[in-house]
Design goal:
alpha/beta, 17% strand, eight-stranded mixed β-sheet, 42% helix, globular
Length: 292
């Protein structure tokens, strides 16, 4: 039973040799439970550390060094960070790519306090970046799966707006380097209506309308992604029966079109050279995984 699983027992998830439990405090007073999973090559140095404080110092120093990429992992709409496929993904990131992964459970998930909402989940991501900044981390990527992809896009918009207001990078903040969107949906309401449960209800008009009205948080990623300026990598799986690969393809094309239009609308005296234009468009990538 996932609700009874002790997510702090790292040994149960084969993470104990290179990970630690983390507690993240949000600006609105919620407490989020999380894991900091270090690159697997830190397993031996962590084993040789002679105290918990020495392990903490080693991990904080590793985060602050900038030697390895850092990823904030945002999971999908159900369950916790302890679900098997999520743990496998995190282990692959830490093992095969040798990156730091901060895996959090949103408010209301996995022992974290509070109730989930669209603004709340974005605030949770802000808190994760604050946690990294407090440990000297200068920049990080966001890996968002399904719902997490929608959260990632909204977070990116909030981050770039704040950066423009500050005009310069604050050394005490953690900067967003890019987004990795895994099985994203184009619009939350649209994705909800494709869910198998909704398909069962679609023939019962009153129930169908009631469920539709309950989808308060629309997560309109298709609209929002047009304003995202950081590099974006989008994954879609051809055998995904819930979200489908079409949403990933549509999001990629929407972002490409938006960035090309932005370049074409730039005044001639401020227009970048062709190399800059190619670089701007090439920071948007799509990967469709067949039979997955």
């Amino acid at each position: 039973d996932m609700r009874r699983t002790d997510l702090t027992r790292l040994i149960d998830f084969r993470l104990q040799r290179f990970s630690r439990n983390a507690e993240i405090h949000t600006q609105d007073g919620e407490i989020l439970r999380a894991w900091h999973v270090a690159p697997m090559r830190y397993a031996l140095p962590l084993l040789e550390a002679n105290s918990d404080s020495a392990r903490e110092t080693l991990l904080n120093t590793a985060l602050a060094s900038g030697n390895d990429p850092v990823v904030v992992f945002l999971h999908g709409q159900a369950g916790t960070r302890g679900i098997l496929n999520r743990v496998d993904c995190v282990r692959a990131l830490a093992g095969e790519l040798q990156v730091h992964v901060l895996v959090l459970d949103y408010r209301g998930f996995g022992g974290s306090t509070g109730m989930p909402s669209q603004s709340g989940l974005v605030a949770d991501t802000v808190a994760a970046f604050d946690w990294l900044a407090q440990r000297g981390c200068q920049s990080a990527y966001v890996y968002g799966h399904s719902l997490g992809a929608a959260v990632a896009v909204q977070f990116a918009l909030q981050q770039q707006q704040q950066q423009k207001q500050k005009q310069q990078h604050d050394a005490e903040t953690c900067r967003l380097q890019g987004l990795i969107l895994d099985a994203p949906f184009f619009c939350g309401r649209e994705a909800g209506m494709k869910h198998p449960l909704y398909q069962l209800l679609r023939w019962i008009y009153p129930l169908r309308e009631a469920v539709s009205r309950c989808l308060v948080d629309t997560w309109d990623t298709g609209q929002s992604i047009q304003r995202v300026e950081c590099p974006v990598l989008i994954f879609g799986a051809s055998c995904d029966r819930i979200v489908g690969v079409d949403a990933a393809v549509r999001l990629h094309q929407t972002l490409l079109d938006a960035r090309r239009n932005q370049l074409h609308q730039t005044p001639l005296d401020a227009k970048p050279d062709n190399a800059s234009e190619v670089a701007t468009v090439s920071t948007t990538r799509l990967a469709v995984i067949k039979d997955a």
